[in-house]
Amino acid sequence: MTFTITQNQNQYLTYCLKDEEADAYLEVVPARGGIITRWQICGEDIFYLDRERFKDPNLSVRGGVPILFPICGNLPDNTYQHQGRNYTLKQHGFARDLPWQVSKQSTETAANLTLELNSNEATRQVYPFDFKLIFTYQLQGNSLKIHQKVINLSPEKMPFSIGFHPYFKVTDKTRLSFDIPSSQYLDQGTKTLHSYSGNFDFNLEEIDAAFLQITRHQSSFSDSYHQRQIVIGYDDLYTTIVFWTLKDKNYICLEPWSAPRNALNTGEHLTYLEPHSSREAIVEMRVNQI
User: Fold this and answer.
1) For residue 33, which of 56, 65, 76, 71 has the smallest C-alpha distance?
2) Are strands 240-246 and 163-164 parallel, antiparallel or unpaired?
3) Interatomic CA distance for residues 181 and 3, integer angstroms
4) Domain ranges of the chain
5) Are 224 and 251 in contact (CB under 8 A)?
6) How many whole angstroms separate alpha carbon 93 and alpha carbon 232?
7) What is the Cα–Cα distance from 153 to 124, expressed in whole angstroms?
8) What's the pLDDT at 147?
9) Per the CB 3.0–4.6 Å rule, which of 130, 145, 163, 287 could disulfide with 138?
């Protein structure tokens, strides 16, 4: 097996991971939120990316795999309280907007790239904790694994949620079928519960569905147009799957979250890390031909 990691200096320094035997390819841009911008299997793009938005550092990225931390979703008025003080934290947190640092890379048994994000004065203004995130992207065969480690460097308990917002490229949404392990979802726009039997109405302008009671640690969808199945596996830190798309856009998002929207206020499925302790988790995405 031949694994390589090279660099391209585009607008941002881009790390290019390859599994040459499997004809698999991954691009990671540390400076733009540690984001994965491209994943290809046999030359076929798995992810969507709005490249014009991506070029503008003032805009959030639409595409690839943005990292959500220390919240998933938004807070009412973008506000939460900690020890009697109000803090403002915008949707999905700040990890997707900050530059990450590459700390390690290896190509022995897979293409592995490790990135780190440390708390700083700006993060402490909106989230009063010291932390370190260590993520390793692992490309091997038809699999993309994301190993995560969250370390609390604070002298007090640190509450957080973490997640991913992958944008999967699709061409014809009517040719998609879903296997999401839940019988109901919360419409995040109307705040109403709906029963779920595997279908979505793609005539709606927007679908924003939170599956809050998932019964197993795997979700998938099949795409008969591209003749592939995407399988997302996640460990027990992840409690919520969000499905999001906009009408007439050629992407869908199937997002593993460790806690639902507004967990920093409600406490629902919120993770609390003891001082100077850590929590690890894995999310894996696989592409199967159908």
Assistant:
1) 65
2) unpaired
3) 34
4) 3-289
5) no
6) 22
7) 12
8) 98
9) 145
Q: Which residues of 124-157 are buried (b: 16+ CB within 10 A; e: fewer)?
A: eeebebbbebbbbbbbbebbbbbbbebbbbbeee
Distance CA 162, CA 278 (A): 13
At 55 the pLDDT is 87
pLDDT of amino acid 10: 85
Structure-block tokens of residue 148: 């995560």
Q: Which pLDDT score, from 0 to 100, does residue 110 have?
A: 97
The four Cα atoms 247, 251, 254, 255 give a dihedral, to 10 degrees, of: -100
Closest alpha carbon to 216 in 188, 245, 176, 256 = 256
Q: Which two tokens stand for residue 41?
A: 């299997």
Which two structure tokens, joined as six digits, stand for 221?
């969808």
Cα–Cα distance measured from residue 83 to residue 88, given in angstroms and rounded to the nearest whole number: 14
Q: What is the model's pTM?
A: 0.96
Is residue 133 within 8 A of residue 69, CB to CB? The reply is yes
Q: According to the 3-state scheme, what is the secondary structure of 4-70?
A: EEEEEECCCEEEEEEECCCCEEEEEEHHHCCEEEEEEECCEECECECHHHHHCCCCCCCECECEEEC
For domain 3-289, the question of CATH label 2.70.98.10 is answered with: yes
- What whole-number distance in Å separates Cα of residue 143 and Cα of residue 41? 10
Single-letter code of the amino acid located at 186: L
Euclidean distance between the first and the last CA atom of the chain, given in angstroms as a whole number: 25
- Tell me which residue has tokens 């070029």: 55
- Summarize pLDDT for 121-137 with one digit per residue, the tens: 999 999 999 999 999 99
Reading the block at residue 286, the tokens are 């696989």
Q: Rounded CA gap, 277 and 289, in Å?
A: 41
